[in-house]
Design a protein that fits this description.
This protein is of the alpha/beta class. Among the domains are: 97 residues, mini-chromosome maintenance (MCM) complex, chain A, domain 1 (2-Layer Sandwich), CATH 3.30.1640.10; 151 residues, Beta Barrel (OB fold (Dihydrolipoamide Acetyltransferase, E2P)), CATH 2.40.50.140; 66 residues, Orthogonal Bundle (Arc Repressor Mutant, subunit A), CATH 1.10.10. 39% of the residues lie in helices and 23% in strands. The protein contains 23 helices and 28 strands. The chain has a five-stranded mixed barrel with strand order 3-7-8-10-9. The protein has a five-stranded parallel β-sheet with strand order 14-17-20-13-21. A three-stranded antiparallel β-sheet has the order 26-28-27. 35% of the residues are buried. About 1% of the residues have low confidence. Bound molecules: adenosine-5'-diphosphate (ADP) and magnesium ion.
Length: 680
C-alpha cells in the first residue's frame, strides 16, 4: 500500500519540478491554462518523466492502468493548488502521455504487449459516430424503488442482479441519474509507406473517450499512446471463442504530418541535393532515373517526373483553392507496362498508394458509410483519402464502381470527398496526384475512333486529367528488336541494363526536398503559355472536340511548368519550362485526336471515327476490288496491290487497309490469297 501512495506523491513532485528552458514551471503553467480554457486533461511529455524519475517512467510503461489512475489524482491534487475553484468544478483531470521513446509497429503487436502502455502510428481509415458511454449506471428496483448505483467498466453493462433490500430481480435504468462520457471507435491502419512490399495492411481498433473523440478523421495520420487490451471473439450465435482481438484504449492522440514533409532529410543529404540541382545534366539525370527497367516512353516518363514533383496549389483570398497536383491518364493496349509504371511511381513517390479501380474495400476509391457489426454507422476512407498529400495510382480505372465515378469528379478537381449518408455528413481531404491507367474498351486501342469511344469513362472525368497518353502495342521490327533486347537483358542480369543516375532513395529525397520551393511564373513563361493556349482555344472554337480546350488546360500548363522548375530547385518558371510543357501538351492532345500541326481537330475523326483521308483511301480500295471483280471474276491480292500502287498506295498501306476492311466486314477472303466484297 505504501508504495502506491508514493506513486501519487512522486507524480505530484514531478508536476511541480519540471521547468522549461526559460525557467518557468512547465506543468504548473499548463494547469493554469487548462483551468482558464476549461479543459479536461493534462498532456505530459514522456521524456520529462524519464528525466526526473526513470523508475516512475518504467512503471508507467509496465503498469499503466494503476499509474495513470494515480497520476490523474495527483494532477487533480496539483490543480487544487493552482486553481482550487476549477478543481472543485471538474473533480477529475485526465493525465495523458505523449512521445514514448519507442514506437511499436502495428504489425508486431501481440500477447507480450497486453496491458502495457504502447505508442503506435498509422492512418485512420474508419471512425464511428460519437456515442455516449455509461460509466456509472443508476438503477431503480421495480418492486421497492430502491436506488442502486453501479460503476461500469469492461465491454458489457452490469446490472445489480438482486435487490439487496427486497430481493427483487427487475430494475429500470435511470438515465437522468447515471453518468455518461462521449466515446468513439476508430480503426488505425498501417501507413501505405510503412507497408512491407506485397503485404496487406494490418489494422487495430482504438477506443477513444472524452476529449479524444472527434480529434482524428478518416485519412488523418496519427500517433497514439494507449493501453493494449483484449476483446473476446464471438462465434455465430453469440458463442464465446477461445481467441481474442487486441484493441487499444487510447490515452493520447496526436495528428502527425499535417504539413510536415514525409521524409527526413539530413543536412548532409540536403547538401547533396543542392549540389545535384546545379549539375548541368540534372534534368536528363532525373528523367533517366524514372522507371529505368521500362523501355522507351520518354515523353510519358517526363510527364510522370512532373507528376512526382507537382505544381503549387493556390489558395485565393475568396476561399477558392486551385489544385497543384497533376493528374495523368494512360490508356493502352494490354501488356504495354502500364501497371508496371504505376507500381513504380507508388514506390518512388514520397507517399504513394497503388489501388485498382475495382477497389478491395467497401470504401473503394473514395469514401463510404458502413454499418458496424455492433450496430451504428461508421465512416470509412477510400484510396484517394488515404493518399492525401501523396500520389494515388489507380490501375484499371475504367472498371471503377458507379458510386466512385460520381465522387471522382469532386476528388479530381476540388480534391475533397464529400459524403452524406446514414446520418454521417463529412468532407474529407483527397489532395493527391492521380496516375491512372485504363484498358481500351475493345481490347485494343483503335486510333480511328474517338478517345471516349475507346475507353469506358465519361468526358467529364477525362477532362480532369492534365495529360492523357495512349500506349499502343504496334509490331514494328526495329523497335521490337530493341525492346526485346532490353527485356531479355533485364531478365539475364536481374537489374536494369543501365544503372539509373540517381538511386530511388536519393530521387525520393530530391522530390521531397523540391516541395519546399514554390516557383513563380516569369513574364516570358506567361507569354509563351498564353500564346499557345489562345491558339489552341481558337482552333477548337467551331469543332466539337473530343476533349474540349478549356481553361483547365491552361491551369494544367501552369502546374506542369511549375513542376518542371522544381526539377532544378529553381524558384522561377522560365520560358524554357513553358516550352517543354507545351511540347508535352501537344503530344498528349495529338494522342486524343487533335491535330496540333494545323491547330485543327480532324472533324472526321470525331464524327465518323475515321479521318477524311483514310475514308477516301478505303473507298478507293473497295471500288478497286469491285473493278477487278468485274473484269476477272476473282480478285487476286497481288493484282489488287499492284493496281493500288498506281494510285500511290504502297503495299504495306494497302495490306493495312484491306485487313481493316475485313475487320469491318466489308471485305472477306473466300480462299487464301483472294478477296471478295461481302455484299454487293
Ligand atoms: P499492362 O498493365 O499495360 O497490361 P504490364 O505492366 O502488366 O502491362 O506489363 C506486362 C509485362 O510486359 C511486364 O512484365 C512488363 O515489364 C513487360 N513490358 C511491357 N512493355 C515493356 C517495356 N516497354 N519495357 C520493359 N518491359 C515491358
Ligand atoms: Mg495492367
Amino acid at each position: 500500500m505504501t508504495t502506491l501512495i508514493t506513486v501519487e506523491e512522486k507524480i505530484q513532485d514531478f508536476l511541480r519540478a519540471v521547468k522549461t528552458e526559460t525557467g518557468e514551471y512547465k506543468y504548473r503553467k499548463k494547469l493554469a491554462k487548462i483551468a482558464l480554457k476549461s479543459e479536461k486533461s493534462l498532456i505530459v511529455d514522456f521524456d520529462d518523466i524519464l528525466a526526473i524519475d526513470s523508475e516512475l517512467a518504467k512503471q508507467l510503461i509496465e503498469n499503466p492502468d494503476e499509474v495513470l489512475d494515480y497520476a490523474s489524482r495527483a494532477t487533480w491534487a496539483q490543480m487544487k493548488i493552482e486553481d482550487p475553484e476549477y478543481a472543485e468544478q471538474v473533480d477529475k483531470i485526465i493525465f495523458r502521455v505523449r512521445k514514448l521513446p519507442e514506437k511499436i509497429s502495428l504489425r508486431t503487436i501481440g500477447e507480450e504487449h497486453l496491458a502495457k502502455l504502447v505508442m503506435l502510428d498509422g492512418i485512420v481509415v474508419r471512425a464511428t459516430t460519437v456515442k455516449p458511454l455509461i460509466i456509472k449506471a443508476a438503477f431503480r428496483c421495480r418492486k421497492c424503488e430502491a436506488n442502486i448505483s453501479i460503476e461500469q467498466d469492461g465491454l458489457v453493462m452490469r446490472g445489480p442482479g438482486i435487490c439487496s433490500q427486497c430481493k427483487g430481480k427487475s430494475f429500470d435504468l435511470i438515465e437522468r441519474d447515471s453518468t455518461f462520457i462521449n466515446s468513439q471507435e476508430v480503426r488505425l491502419q498501417e501507413k501505405p509507406e510503412d507497408l512491407p512490399p506485397g503485404q496487406l495492411p494490418r489494422s487495430i481498433d482504438l477506443k477513444l473517450t472524452e476529449d479524444l473523440v472527434d480529434i482524428a478523421r478518416p485519412g488523418d495520420r496519427i500517433s497514439t499512446v494507449g493501453i493494449t487490451r483484449l476483446q473476446i471473439d464471438t462465434l455465430t450465435g453469440g458463442v464465446k471463442s477461445r481467441t481474442f482481438t487486441i484493441y487499444l484504449e487510447a490515452n493520447q492522440i496526436d495528428i502527425i504530418g499535417k504539413e510536415a514533409e514525409v521524409i527526413e532529410i539530413t543536412p548532409e543529404e540536403e547538401q547533396e541535393i543542392v549540389e545535384l540541382s546545379k549539375d548541368p545534366w540534372i534534368h536528363r539525370k532525373l528523367l533517366t532515373s524514372i522507371a529505368p527497367s521500362i523501355h522507351g516512353y520518354e515523353d510519358l516518363k517526363e510527364s510522370i517526373l512532373y507528376l512526382l514533383f507537382g505544381g503549387i496549389s493556390k489558395h485565393l483570398p475568396d476561399g477558392v483553392t486551385i489544385r497543384g497536383d497533376i493528374n495523368i491518364l494512360l490508356v493502352g493496349d494490354p501488356g504495354t507496362a502500364k501497371s508496371q509504371l504505376l507500381q513504380y511511381v507508388t514506390r518512388v513517390a514520397p507517399r504513394g498508394l497503388y489501388t485498382s479501380g475495382r477497389g478491395s474495400t467497401a470504401a473503394g476509391l473514395t469514401a463510404a458509410v458502413v454499418r458496424e457489426k455492433a450496430g451504428g454507422m461508421s465512416l470509412e476512407a477510400g484510396a484517394l483519402v488515404l493518399a492525401d498529400k501523396g500520389v494515388c495510382s489507380i490501375d484499371e480505372i475504367d472498371k471503377m464502381k458507379p458510386e466512385d465515378r460520381v465522387a471522382m469528379h469532386e476528388a479530381m478537381e476540388q480534391q475533397t470527398v464529400s459524403i452524406a449518408k446514414g446520418g454521417i455528413v463529412a468532407t474529407l481531404n483527397a489532395r493527391s496526384a492521380i496516375l491512372a491507367a485504363a484498358n481500351p474498351a475493345l481490347g485494343r486501342y483503335d486510333p480511328y475512333r474517338n478517345i471516349n469511344d475507346n475507353i469506358n469513362l465519361p468526358i467529364t472525368i477525362l477532362s480532369r486529367f492534365d495529360l492523357l497518353f495512349v500506349m499502343r502495342d504496334i509490331p514494328e521490327s526495329e523497335a521490337d528488336d530493341r525492346m526485346s533486347e532490353h527485356i531479355l537483358k533485364l531478365h539475364k542480369f536481374r537489374s536494369s541494363p543501365e544503372e539509373p543516375p540517381l538511386s530511388p532513395e536519393i530521387l525520393r529525397k530530391y522530390i521531397s526536398y523540391s516541395k519546399r520551393i514554390d516557383p513563380v511564373l516569369t513574364d516570358e513563361a506567361i507569354r509563351d503559355l498564353r500564346d499557345f493556349y489562345l491558339k489552341m482555344r481558337s482552333s477548337s472554337e467551331s469543332a466539337e472536340s473530343p476533349v474540349a480546350i478549356t481553361p483547365r488546360q491552361l491551369e494544367a500548363l501552369v502546374r506542369l511548368s511549375e513542376a518542371r522548375a522544381r526539377n532544378f530547385l529553381r524558384n522561377k518558371v522560365t520560358s524554357e519550362d513553358a516550352l517543354a510543357i507545351i511540347r508535352l501538351m501537344k503530344i498528349s492532345l495529338q494522342d486524343v485526336g487533335i491535330d496540333t500541326s494545323t491547330g485543327k481537330m480532324d472533324i472526321d475523326v470525331i464524327m465518323t471515327g475515321k479521318p477524311k483521308s483514310l475514308r477516301d483511301k478505303m473507298q478507293l480500295v473497295i471500288s478497286m476490288v469491285a473493278k477487278i471483280e468485274k473484269e476477272t471474276g476473282n480478285v487476286d491480292e497481288s493484282t489488287l496491290y499492284q493496281e493500288l500502287s498506281k494510285a500511290d498506295i504502297d503495299e504495306e498501306q494497302a495490306k493495312a487497309l484491306v485487313s481493316r476492311l475485313m475487320r469491318e466486314g466489308i471485305l472477306y477472303s473466300p480462299k487464301p490469297g483472294f478477296i471478295k466484297r461481302t455484299a454487293v
